[in-house]
């Protein structure tokens, strides 16, 4: 009986082991085919290998709060789709403000990075977008006494490119840091460490565009044109700008980064950021509040 039982056990074992070895991954082990954000927007994820050189580039789904978008893959940073956390941005080429050719951002080169205009969209469902923008030029609570962090403490300049510049009041700024005990050799005592601010106001005097750029003290542009393309020059510095404005109709704060040489095109960049989001938004696909 024992030998028979042992044989039966061995036969059973040999029949089960192949099944164990060939068992398919459970659904819990497989990446989800869709992703749902906090506002209930569901986007389709593209699983498996992707080719950033694919032409024409495939349409990839993205979500901006409750809004679904379909965006050609070559508009993304890796030219393959949104980030793993579902965030996304558009990467455009200056001065055309068109996407890079499929695959051009693979193995990112310095010249490609230099002429990139990066546009990030932040949906705000608990903070008014105007208030979020206002906080950027009225000072953070941790540094509320710093005269460099308040628009009214800065020195207003003559308008340029349709913007009003505000330079840091360096004597006041240096006095502030000296009173806080900073050593005289600290970078904060260098004029070129303090950004220039630029604003545009609406008809009611409210700021609707806020831009920070590397100080005018840095005279170098850091760029040049070669074969019709904007590229990095031999200059030691590469002045940059950080540009913010609101899209209140979709509760979105837009954040843009580019080289300072592109500042004269700030309005064209804003218009492109607006038009692309309108173009890619799936009509009638907004998730309704529940």
Automatic annotation (TrEMBL):
<feature type="signal peptide">
    <location>
        <begin position="1"/>
        <end position="23"/>
    </location>
</feature>
<protein>
    <recommendedName>
        <fullName>Lipoprotein</fullName>
    </recommendedName>
</protein>
<keyword id="KW-0732">Signal</keyword>
<dbReference type="InterPro" id="IPR049732">
    <property type="entry name" value="Smlt3025-like"/>
</dbReference>
């Amino acid at each position: 009986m024992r030998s028979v039982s042992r044989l039966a056990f061995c036969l059973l074992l040999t029949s089960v082991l192949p099944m164990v070895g060939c068992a398919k991954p459970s659904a819990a082990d497989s990446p989800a085919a869709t992703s749902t954000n906090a506002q209930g927007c569901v986007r389709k994820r593209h699983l498996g290998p992707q080719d950033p050189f694919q032409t024409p580039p495939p349409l990839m789904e993205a979500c901006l709060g409750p809004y679904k978008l379909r965006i050609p893959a070559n508009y993304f940073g890796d030219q393959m789709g949104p980030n793993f956390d579902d965030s996304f941005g558009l990467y455009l080429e200056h001065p055309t403000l068109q996407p890079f050719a499929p695959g051009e951002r693979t193995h990112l080169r310095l010249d490609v990075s230099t002429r990139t205009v990066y546009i990030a969209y932040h949906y705000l469902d608990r903070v008014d977008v105007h208030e979020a923008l206002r906080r950027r030029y009225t000072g953070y609570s941790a540094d509320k006494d710093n005269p460099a962090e308040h628009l009214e403490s800065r020195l207003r300049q003559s308008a340029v490119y349709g913007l009003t510049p505000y330079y840091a009041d360096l004597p006041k700024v240096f006095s502030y840091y000296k009173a806080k005990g900073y050593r005289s050799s600290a970078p904060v005592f260098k004029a070129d460490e303090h950004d220039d601010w630029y604003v545009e106001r609406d008809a009611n005097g409210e700021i609707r565009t806020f831009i920070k750029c590397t100080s005018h003290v840095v005279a170098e542009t850091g760029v040049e044109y070669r074969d019709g393309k904007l590229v990095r020059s031999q200059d030691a510095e590469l002045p940059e700008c950080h540009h913010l404005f609101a899209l209140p109709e979709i509760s979105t704060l837009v954040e843009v980064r580019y080289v300072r040489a592109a500042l004269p095109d700030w309005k064209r960049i804003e218009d492109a950021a607006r038009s692309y989001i309108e173009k890619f938004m799936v009509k009638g696909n907004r998730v309704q509040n529940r």
